[in-house]
Amino acid sequence: MANIKYDIVDIRTIKNEKSGMLSFFEAERDIPMAIKRIYYITGADKDSIRGGHAHKESMQFIFCPYGAIKLILDDGKRKAEVVLDNPSKGLLLYPCLWRDIIWLEEKSVLCVAVSLYYNAEENDYIRDYREFLEYVFKNPNIT
Ligand code: TYD
Q: How far apart are CA 87 and CA 99, in angstroms?
């Protein structure tokens, strides 16, 4: 059985003795996608929950430069958990994965680079879990 479609990406990080760490990645080189949009979430309490949706088309590269965040991924058949707890760890999500995101530490910063622009009609979103299951059932090659 194929694995759930995500990759863990090592984000190159250069550590300086006293002045912190510098992390960087390049679109279409370190991650297999162009970046159209970046958004980030700050100021969340511990145990905050976000996500609760899937994307039909877009790929997302998710990283946590500060704190610790858990993602529960679901492709309709299988589940996986990934913890992002350091600036060098990135998570690349392919289309059509349901994700729930849980803040393990207060004020953890969630950053997301996305392969598509946002549109207000949310054509790319599935926000209903039953609808998600129907969608992956009808499009078996997508995950
Ligand atoms: P939403 O995706 O609902 O966040 P969550 O599911 O984690 O609660 O986004 C919250 C609001 O922000 C919603 O009104 C849409 C808006 N938004 C944008 O305008 N552009 C974006 O790139 C994103 C991610 C959200």
A: 20
* C-alpha to C-alpha distance for 138 and 126, rounded to whole angstroms: 14
DSSP string of 47-91, one letter each residue:
T-EEEEEEESS--EEEEEEES-EEEEEE-SS-EEEEEE-STTEEE
Which is the closest atom of ligand 1 to the Cα of 118? 22
What pLDDT score does 55 carry? 97
Separation of 137 CA from ligand 1 center, angstroms? 26
pLDDT (tens digit per residue) in 50-100: 999 999 999 999 999 999 999 999 999 999 999 999 999 999 999 999 999
* Residue 55 annotated in active site: no
By alpha-carbon position, which residue is closest to atom 20 of ligand 1?
A: 118
Q: Taking the complete model, does pTM exceed 0.90, yes or no?
A: yes
Q: Which residues line ligand 1 (CB under 6 A)?
A: 37, 39, 50, 53, 118
